[in-house]
Amino acid sequence: MKRMMLYFGSFNPIHRGHVALAEYAVEQGLCDELALVVSPQNPLKEADAQAPELDRFEMAEIACAHSKYPDRIKPSVVEFLLPRPSYTVDTLRYLSENHGREMSFSILMGSDLVGQLDRWKEYETILDNYPLFVYPRRGAEVGRFRDRVTLLEGAPLQDYSSTDVREALENGEDASRMLQPEVAEYIRRKGLWTPESRLQRLTVRIEAEPANAALHIERGKLHYRRASWGDALNDFNRALEIDAANCEARQYVEMVQEILAFRYKDIYNP
Predict the structure, then answer these.
(1) First to last CA, the chain
(2) What is the pLDDT of residue 26?
(3) What is the CATH superfamily name and number for domain 2-162?
(4) pTM, whole model, 2 decimals?
C-alpha cells in the first residue's frame, strides 16, 4: 500500500521553505509520495487575502517540478473539486473512501497549526485516524496534542512565511532568497503582489473605514517607499487628524517635510 503524505496549505505563494519540508519528508522515508493539497479557501482566512486558486496551484506545480523529487512531490487539486469551504476532515474522508484500498494517508503540518486543531471541524476524527507529522515553527509550541503527533525535530526550520514573501513583493523588495527562480518569474509575469495591487487594496479598505488611522499610515508608508511624497504626506496628515497623538504618523510627517525641504530648497527655503 502506498504511503501518501498530505501537506495542506494555501501556498500563497509557495516558497523554498515549503519545498524543503516536502523534500525532507521524502528523504526521511516518512512517505512514498507527498501531495501538496492546495486549498481553494482556508475557512480560517479571509478570502480576499489569497491569490486566485489556479495561480496558486500553477506556482505549486512549478515548484514541485523543480524540487529534488519531482516524481514523488506533486500538487493536488482535490479540494478544488469538493464543496466549499474546504475542511481537512472532509478531504480526508473523500480520499479514504475513494483511494483507501491502495493508499494510506498521513498529514504534514506546522507546529503553529497544532495549537489551532481544536478549532478544526471534527479534529478528534483526524487525530484518531491519521498520523500527524509536525515540523517546528519559531515561537509556536505543539502544546496539548504533543503526545498525539510526531514532532519532526530535525526538519528544516523556516525563518519566513508566505506573508513575508507577499509583503516583500508588495514593498518592491527582493524576495529571491524565499522563492525559486521559476516561481518568482511566474509571479512577475502574472503581476501578483505588486506595490500597485497593495495600494489598490488599501484604498478599498480606507474607503470602507475612512476613520482608521492605521490604514492611512500603512498606505502612507507605501507611498513613502515609492517616493510619492505628496501622497505620503496626505495620508500621514490624515492619520494625525484622526489621532493627533499618533507618534508614528507625526514622525513620518517630519521626515517627509525634511525630504521636501532638502529637495526643493527654492520653494521651501527661498
Answers:
(1) 82
(2) 98
(3) HUPs (3.40.50.620)
(4) 0.85
